[in-house]
Amino acid sequence: MSSTLPQELQSLIIQPGPAALGPESRLGTLAQADLNRALDEVFRRHGPPAKGKLIRALLLLWHDHHDASHTISQSIENPDGSLVHGILHRREPDYWNAKYWFRRVGQHPCFAELSKLAAPLLAADAKLSAQLLMGGAWDAPAFVDAVEAAASKPASDARHQLLRAVQQAETEVTLDYFLLS
Element (H or E) spanning 5, and its range? Predict the structure, then answer.
């Protein structure tokens, strides 16, 4: 696998900026057909990564194509598929179902890196940091609870924006994990 593959795929997360905490579509996302073409081209040039289906499901979700992402993630019956499935249901929002899928994930290997990336983001909100990083470990169901609590607040709310930044870090860490494992 070429070292440019992660950079090309990371660029698909950087544009269009943080995803909504819920199902809302954003300006600047790629149309589903365009995203699939871009992924097909990257995989053709570099060879398909071992977790190509998971990468596709994650990036479809990031670009607000929930149904297409759901079709893929629910067909992958392992902790990685459950991870994407949990993220999807959190954004749907179907919070109970999201926590069900995160319980199936257990302590995912990418959570250690997510804890490291989330800690400086959460430094300004000690209460939220304690909730999400209990004992320094990432607590995915607690993140679902935090998103649910913030969902009724306007997108301009500081905690809402913070959670969107953490969600972006979660997507970046998950993508890196899928690329490297």
Answer: helix 4-14
